[in-house]
Design brief:
The chain has 223 residues and is α+β, with helices and mostly antiparallel strands. It contains four helices and nine strands; from the N terminus they run ααααβββββββββ. A hairpin with a 2-residue loop joins strand 5 and strand 6. Helix 1 packs across helix 2. The longest helix has 43 residues.
């Protein structure tokens, strides 16, 4: 009778203890334990993937940037630049912003594959240093995150574009501002020689676009 009473006490405690009920449930259903184990592994792999993805993209962009740097200095690229036959993903210009310690080779095009270089030129905008509104898009949190700190730019900061045929300088003329990702007017052509940088905003989100506007210092290069 004492033993029966002890077993009854255990059952009562398990019934009144939520954790005990869960343990008892899992003991009776091995398939649930296996399902939870698989789910835990899946969540762990997903977490590792989320943490490792930026590292992988940065490593990829670093190797690609070295290759693009050599391409930018090649005679063949200069010829393609002058003849207007650059292809998507080809090196186009080196972008330097001393205020945020930025130095990145910008490629032609803003496709997903082109932007793995970190920054790409909007193909429907003028070439660097020419008259009009030159548009360049860049990643902010992946693929080297070249535009990670463009929100810190201030009026008066300089931006240099070095192409295979020359170099020019732009000066930021207004504070960075956010707009809709569907607002294409920011890269529309202008009469003045301008440079527009675009990137995702806020960091880690594509909800908006952060825009930096700069004006050419000096005369534009001939088209």
């Amino acid at each position: 009778m004492a033993e029966e009473g002890g077993a009854t006490d255990v059952m009562v405690k398990a019934g009144s203890d939520p954790l005990g009920r869960v343990v008892a449930f899992l003991r009776r259903r091995p398939w649930v334990r296996r399902l939870l184990s698989a789910l835990s592994v899946g969540l762990l792999l997903a977490a590792v993937g989320l943490l490792g993805y930026p590292f992988y993209t940065n490593l990829y962009q670093d190797r690609l940037q070295r290759k693009l740097g050599h391409q930018l200095a090649s005679p063949g690229l200069e010829e393609a630049y002058r003849s207007g036959t650059l292809g998507t993903g080809d090196a186009l210009t080196r972008l330097r912003i001393p205020a945020i310690d930025l130095d990145v080779v910008v490629v032609e095009g803003t496709t997903a594959s082109a932007l793995r270089a970190g920054a790409g030129h909007y193909v429907n905008t003028p070439l660097p240093c020419e008259a009009g509104n030159v548009g360049i898009a860049g990643h902010r949190t992946t693929y080297g995150r070249p535009f990670n700190h463009v929100d810190l730019l201030q009026p008066g900061d300089t931006i240099t574009l070095q192409t295979p045929v020359g170099q020019c300088t732009y000066r930021v003329d207004q504070a960075p501002f956010a707009t809709s990702p569907f607002d294409t007017s920011v890269v529309a052509n202008t009469h003045d020689a301008m440079l527009t940088l675009t990137t995702c905003h806020p960091k880690g989100s594509a909800r908006q676009r952060l825009i930096i506007k700069a004006r050419l210092v000096g005369q534009p290069a001939p088209a």
